[in-house]
Design a protein that fits this description.
Structural class: alpha/beta
Helix content: 25-40%
CATH topology of the largest domain: Peroxisomal Thiolase, Chain A, domain 1
Number of helices: 14
Number of domains: 2
Shape: globular
Number of strands: 15
Largest sheet: 10 strands, mixed
CATH superfamily of the largest domain: Thiolase/Chalcone synthase
CATH class of the largest domain: Alpha Beta
Strand order of the largest sheet: 5-4-6-8-1-9-15-14-10-11
Radius of gyration: 20 Å
Order of helices and strands: EHEEHHEHHHEHEHEEHEHEHEHHHEEEE
CATH architecture of the largest domain: 3-Layer(aba) Sandwich
């Protein structure tokens, strides 16, 4: 029998292109405030991107930041904000019993590109190659930077799960708490993608880089005239605890992890498989002991690519057509935050447990008929009592994740 020990969310720390805490982020989603802007990308010219504007030096010294990475600085900011939000007495907690589980797409590209650029500026003299290169580019770097900053001596590692990584960080945190490996988990996802030209060039070569003369309109999931992904950075880390531990310290509880599922398409490098996505959603519902009729919000992955959106809409219709579930998507306002996407987009919906509002899906001027779904919220938010949220997050090489959070009662 699966371990169904109750795991709850007691803290949320984030930075997004349109907000540096949950209140700002939620307000922007309800108001339709975009965080997308024009950015000069090396070798690529001006492109639309989602950039965060948080204080990198609020929780770390300049010297440490110089040694580290943008992804690490995002993670450090989010972790501190989550701890403060959870009102944890950091001086008394056992650092050995804390786990850090950070989902990420790619890591090390930014630092490597910058160092190669400097190498060519100095006639390929490798004496200029940074001695910080190795610790910056190892796969565990972002989680390791958070661990160093916080003095956490429990397990700290990254989880590579493409654009499903934000959900996967949370799922892994739940699993480790239920396994008794840790007593508190800092879990979620982060991304530093706009700092590298390679990801822009690759999506451009693929014909999947979102563009528009107005950068705020570059990301248009489900719209008939969508043309691809707007690359963004961001992060969202959660404090996860066993329910009894949260109750002992009278913690504020945002919600409870009801269920989840992860599977793989095993069919294509980049093209999603709606049948496998459908299976993933069904498995998450089964894990949560819920039916499709029990779900109030379905937050789509909805990247703004042609086939990506169509395949996901097929999966959602396979499961939720004819139910009362309301469907929304977030990337029109923040772009694709890659490894942070799942955890950020989930956070943007969690306040609906309290304010009973479902935020809208923006930049849909003409809905693609192949993306038509029951109860799709377009534009202004709608009023609805919300007790359950299902968050979809899918990634390249066919990794799918569905995570269900329910209102704590």
């Amino acid at each position: 029998m699966p371990n169904k020990q109750r795991i709850v969310i007691t803290g949320i720390g984030l930075t997004a292109p349109n907000g540096n805490n949950l209140s700002e982020f939620r307000g922007a989603l309800l108001e339709g405030k975009s965080g997308l802007q024009a950015k000069e990308i090396r070798h690529m010219g001006t492109k639309a991107a989602g950039l965060c504007d948080f204080d990198e030096f609020r929780y770390q010294k300049r010297k440490t930041r110089k040694r580290g990475t943008r992804a690490g600085s995002i993670g450090i900011y989010c972790a501190h904000q989550a701890i403060l939000d959870a009102e944890i007495d950091w001086n008394t907690v056992d650092k050995d019993q804390i786990g850090i589980y950070v989902g990420i797409t790619e890591h090390g590209n930014v630092e490597t590109e910058n160092e190669i650029h400097e190498l060519y500026q100095n006639e390929l003299n490798t004496d200029f190659w940074s001695h910080h290169h190795n610790p910056r580019t190892v796969a565990n770097a972002p989680a390791g930077e958070i661990s160093l900053n916080l003095g956490v001596t429990g397990p700290a590692y990254t989880i590579g799960a493409a654009c499903a990584a934000g959900n996967m960080g949370l799922i892994h945190g739940v699993q480790m708490l239920r396994a008794g490996e840790v007593d508190l988990a800092i879990a979620g996802g982060i991304s530093e993608s706009p700092a590298t030209f390679g990801i822009f060039a690759a999506f451009n070569s693929q014909g999947a880089l979102g563009s528009h003369e107005n950068p705020e309109l570059s990301s248009r999931p489900l719209d008939k005239n969508r043309n691809g992904i707007t690359i963004s950075e961001g992060g969202c880390l959660y404090i996860l605890e066993r329910l009894e531990d949260a109750q002992k310290r009278n913690a504020k509880i945002y919600g409870e992890v009801a269920g989840y599922a992860v599977n793989s398409d095993a069919s294509d490098f980049v093209l999603p498989n709606s049948e496998r996505q459908t299976e993933c959603i069904h498995k998450a519902l089964k894990n949560a002991e819920l039916s499709a009729n029990d779900i109030d919000i379905v937050n789509m992955h909805a990247t703004g690519t042609n086939q990506g959106d169509i395949q996901e809409c097929k999966a959602i219709n396979n499961v939720f057509k004819g139910t009362s579930a309301h469907i929304n998507a977030t990337k029109a306002l923040i772009g694709h935050c890659m490894g942070a996407a799942g955890s950020l987009e989930l956070a943007g919906n969690i306040p609906s447990f309290e304010d009973s509002m479902v935020h809208g899906t923006y930049n849909i001027d003409e809905l693609d008929e192949e993306c038509a779904m029951d109860n799709l919220v377009i534009g202004a938010p709608v009023k609805k009592e919300v007790k359950t949220i299902l968050n979809n997050s899918f990634g390249m090489l066919g990794i799918n994740s569905s995570l269900i959070i329910k209102k704590y009662i």
